[in-house]
């Protein structure tokens, strides 16, 4: 009997904004390392899980294109993109991608769009298709700080989330996909380690492979 292969594409970002590291890429690589060793919780719950990674440029014009090329190349069954949200103190499970670019600082190519669409004429917003409430519960039970977030901002991370969700709809690929922001895991006051964030991503993957609807319980926040 052959085991079905379930491919997860995990992306992180290059450094930006004056830092010489981006912990999102460190986390993606750590999850992929554990996957190669068959150490993931996801692999204990589901056979045949393999993880590939891509490091995205922090550039409005290229990030989404590199992501779409990786999807075409890898044909994943799930896509989780990771990014850094410096100054936050919890993992942020992003619920929504906005069709809006408004950059507080120039991207790594020097572009600084203001009030431009990600995809002209497309929907205003698209929702993550990961099982976020189930994942939030499970990650919190593991002891890590985690929140649902209703704004991924309007910089390159939001751009990637919106592009990802739009692309999967446009190409009729019904696979779970979404975005997780991590705090600055290398800061002195980091609320968790790269290893712990990798465990949280593993749990997010495990919960998002469950085919049942997401948990139904109120979990909204004021902002
Ligand atoms: N964080 C930025 C872009 C790249 C990253 O890691 C953001 O939150 O938009």
TrEMBL record:
Can you name this protein? Pyroglutamyl-peptidase I
Q: Which residues form the active site?
A: 157
Q: According to its UniProt record, what is one Pfam family this protein matches?
A: Peptidase_C15
What are its E.C. numbers?
3.4.19.3
Where on the tree of life does the source sit, at the highest rank? Answer: Bacteria
CDD domains in the cross-refs: Peptidase_C15
Residues that span the membrane, as ranges = none
Return the InterPro entries for the record: Peptidase_C15, Peptidase_C15-like, Peptidase_C15-like_sf, PGPEP1_Cys_AS
Source organism of the structure: Nesterenkonia rhizosphaerae
PROSITE patterns hit by this protein: PYRASE_CYS
